[in-house]
Every structure is written in structure tokens, then in C-alpha cells.
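Retry 2 of 3 after timeout on previous attempt. Resubmitting C-alpha cells to design endpoint.
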């Protein structure tokens, strides 16, 4: 417990960073009697806020730095709050002033504030903890029912964080904008991992860095960070990737081409007719196929989003399911994961004469584009695909627009003279 002196004054001050053009907000109390009973001194407390846009008072010189530049006091408003050009910085200064006012009241009223000190100690202890250990500990807490792909991505990010830190902890107190910018550059050149050679693609790096930001935001919620530092750093921009699709004619050609894996063929065309993801087709059971008054419907929970979906399917899609089985029996039993079906799928595509790079997921792209080309409303397609945002579905709309342009350009009539002279001579009867 610290005992205040009479006339103790509490002030919000700035401390310049040695490496960046930023300032730390601190609360300075003076004079304060020290716990050992020695000579009164000053106490400086960090409020864990950083600003970058303070407005300097050029009429108030406080000194000269090592480079010979003048140092100035910050400008303050009538309430004594430091002025800044940034809105976020102004809010940080207002917060610091509230801390100052609270501390001033404590000193003025000689209030014992050991609880406050304990909270500060607890906060400092949290700031010393390792972010990487924290990140790995929350994976299953944040995603208790998430798909395996999400868990794999978060786990991979945890390993990349260890590589980035060279196996050393990253205390929360060391996490700042510079460190995150360095991490961003690392992600763009990081190894793929596993048996894959080379570095991460830009889109993979973008995904992984967004996961880091999500972990930091969660740390802010859990009060390991006093500033939502992730909000101050932009993510890695994603590159637009061409989404390969099959035309209706190509799909019909593929249907006429024998496939060495019959269950793969049935599942692939089931995906084209329904838009259902491979992970959901793989786990689909006969208990999820329902007969309705108008036809058939798939009632299932999407493995990726955990959204319960009710998707009507046509007779052709239903026929691809084969003979009905037990309630919990897989419809496409024997269908393996994407890595194991890539070879027979590639061989099947090549046998059809189609020159495109087609993966199983392209069946879902094909469903979307064919639906839009057929005039289905984009919001209906969004619902059928299980997208949470129509912007995702609009990607397919752009593909359709391109297809329409290609179709328009392809229609030509031989022998038709389209010169202006000929058209001018034409008479309408």
C-alpha cells in the first residue's frame, strides 16, 4: 500500500519510442512517498496505450535530442487532454485521462487502492505470458465443432508462429505493429510444410495471417492485450484465382466417358446437380434423404459451417444415390478424400478429352455457374450453396457474365455484310 503526500499531482505524459514514430501514454504521479520510507519520488504507470499522431506545441520546447532536433510539449485541450489528429489516438488519450482522474481522486482522498494495484499486477503477468502457447490452447475452444480443415489451418499457424519466433516465446507485451508487419512478411515466404516443397502461396499466407489476427482479437477479449492490435494491421490481400468450371456440353461429354471408379463418377455428378461439398457428400447417409410431397430433399448439417440445411434435389440426383440402405449407412460408401480421388478423377477427365484442370470442387463451381446461366436468382443460388455472404456467390456471377460475352462473340452468320454502306442502303418495308 502506498501512502500519498499532500498536493500529489497526476499527469498524463508521453514517452517516445526508440525505434518507431510512436509514443507511449503514461500516468505520472509526483510526489509520492515510497514504500521503504525513503525520499519522496515519482511513480510512472503505463496505461498500455500507444499513439502516433500527437499535436506538438512548437512554442513549448522541452529540450534537444541527440540529433539536434527540438523536442516539444504536446498540445492539450482546455481539460488537459493531449490533442491528436487520429480519432483512435484521441480516444486513447481520453482513456488515459480517465485513468489519471481516477488516480488523482485516489490520492486526493487518501483512498487505499491495493485492489487496483493487484489488478495492475495481474495485467502485467498476463502481458508476460506467451502468445504462441495461448494461441495453441484456444484452437479447440474457439472451434469446438469446426470442420477438420479449420482445425488443420489453425494448427499449422501455431507451428508457423514457432518457426517465426525461432522456437522462443512471444510475450504479449512484445506484440506491436512492427512485429505483426514482420510476421506478415514471414508468412509470404514461409515453407508449405508437410511433404510439400516451396513456399506458401499468397492466398494461403492471407488465410494464415487472418487466423493470427483472429487469435490476437480473442486475446484482446480475454484481456491479455489492452489494445486490439490486430485491428491496426491490414491483412494480406488475396489474389483472384480462376475458378474452373464445366460447361453443360462438357458435363454431358464426361457423363458418356467411362470412369474406373464408379462411386467417384456418381458422387461427382451428384455434386454438379446439388452443389454439395465433397466433405458433406462423403458423410451423407440415407437418413438425411427425405421424401417430400414434391420430390426429394437432403436434410443435413454442413460440415464446414455447421449450418443445418434443407436442400431439394431432383430425381436425377436422387437416382445417383443408388439403392436405399439403412438409416445410418453412407450413400457414397467407398468414396475417399480429395487427395485419394485426384488421380482417378484426373485420368477420367483426360479420357473425356477435356483440357481443363478439374478437381472435385469444380463440380460445385459448375453447379453454381449452370444455375446462374439458367436464370436462377443469385440469392437462391447463395442459399443452395450455403454461403453466408452473397459476395461469395457473386464470384460465379462474374464467370457467367464472361460466359455470356463469349457466347455472344461466338455467334456469327457467314455471308452477312455488316458494312455501314450496306446498312444505309437497306429499306424497311
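Retry 2 succeeded. Sequence:
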Amino acid at each position: 500500500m502506498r501512502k500519498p503526500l499532500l498536493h500529489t499531482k497526476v499527469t498524463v505524459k508521453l514517452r517516445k519510442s526508440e525505434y518507431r514514430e510512436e509514443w507511449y501514454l503514461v500516468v505520472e504521479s509526483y510526489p509520492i512517498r515510497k514504500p521503504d520510507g525513503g525520499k519522496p519520488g515519482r511513480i510512472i504507470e503505463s496505461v498500455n496505450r500507444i499513439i502516433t499522431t500527437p499535436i506538438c506545441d512548437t512554442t513549448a520546447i522541452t529540450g534537444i535530442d541527440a540529433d539536434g532536433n527540438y523536442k516539444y510539449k504536446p498540445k492539450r485541450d482546455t481539460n488537459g487532454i493531449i490533442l491528436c489528429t487520429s480519432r483512435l489516438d484521441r480516444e486513447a488519450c481520453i482513456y488515459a485521462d480517465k485513468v489519471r482522474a481516477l488516480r488523482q481522486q485516489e490520492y486526493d482522498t487518501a483512498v487505499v487502492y491495493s485492489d487496483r494495484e493487484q489488478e495492475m499486477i495481474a495485467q502485467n503477468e498476463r502481458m508476460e505470458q506467451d502468445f504462441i502457447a495461448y494461441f495453441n490452447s484456444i484452437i479447440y475452444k474457439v472451434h469446438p465443432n469446426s470442420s477438420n480443415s479449420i482445425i488443420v489451418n489453425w494448427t499449422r499457424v501455431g507451428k508457423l508462429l514457432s518457426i517465426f519466433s525461432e522456437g522462443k516465446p512471444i510475450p504479449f507485451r512484445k506484440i506491436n505493429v512492427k512485429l505483426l508487419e514482420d510476421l506478415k512478411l514471414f508468412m509470404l515466404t514461409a515453407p508449405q510444410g508437410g511433404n510439400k516443397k516451396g513456399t506458401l502461396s499468397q492466398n494461403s499466407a492471407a488465410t494464415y495471417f487472418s487466423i493470427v489476427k483472429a487469435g490476437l482479437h480473442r486475446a484482446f477479449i480475454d484481456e491479455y492485450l489492452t489494445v486490439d492490435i490486430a485491428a491496426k494491421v491490414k491483412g494480406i490481400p488475396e489474389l483472384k484465382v480462376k475458378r474452373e468450371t464445366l460447361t453443360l456440353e462438357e458435363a454431358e461429354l464426361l457423363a458418356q466417358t467411362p470412369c474406373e471408379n464408379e462411386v467417384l463418377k456418381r458422387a461427382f455428378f451428384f455434386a454438379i446437380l446439388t452443389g454439395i461439398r465433397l466433405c458433406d457428400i462423403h458423410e451423407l447417409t440415407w437418413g438425411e434423404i427425405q421424401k417430400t410431397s414434391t420430390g426429394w430433399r437432403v436434410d443435413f448439417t454442413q460440415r464446414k459451417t455447421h449450418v443445418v440445411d434443407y436442400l431439394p434435389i431432383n430425381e436425377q440426383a436422387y437416382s445417383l444415390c443408388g439403392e436405399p440402405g439403412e438409416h445410418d449407412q453412407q450413400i457414397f460408401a467407398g468414396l475417399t478424400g480429395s487427395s485419394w480421388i485426384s488421380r482417378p478423377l484426373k485420368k477420367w477427365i483426360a479420357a473425356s478429352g477435356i483440357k481443363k484442370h478439374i478437381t472435385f470442387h469444380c463440380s460445385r463451381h459448375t453447379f453454381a455457374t449452370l444455375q446462374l446461366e439458367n436464370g436462377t436468382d443469385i440469392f437462391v443460388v447463395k442459399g443452395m450453396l450455403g454461403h453466408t455472404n452473397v459476395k461469395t456467390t457473386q464470384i460465379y456471377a462474374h464467370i457467367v457474365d464472361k460466359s455470356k460475352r463469349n457466347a455472344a462473340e461466338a455467334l456469327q452468320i457467314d455471308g452477312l455484310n455488316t458494312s455501314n454502306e450496306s446498312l444505309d442502303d437497306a429499306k424497311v418495308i
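Attempt log closed. The two ends are 104 Å apart (CA to CA).
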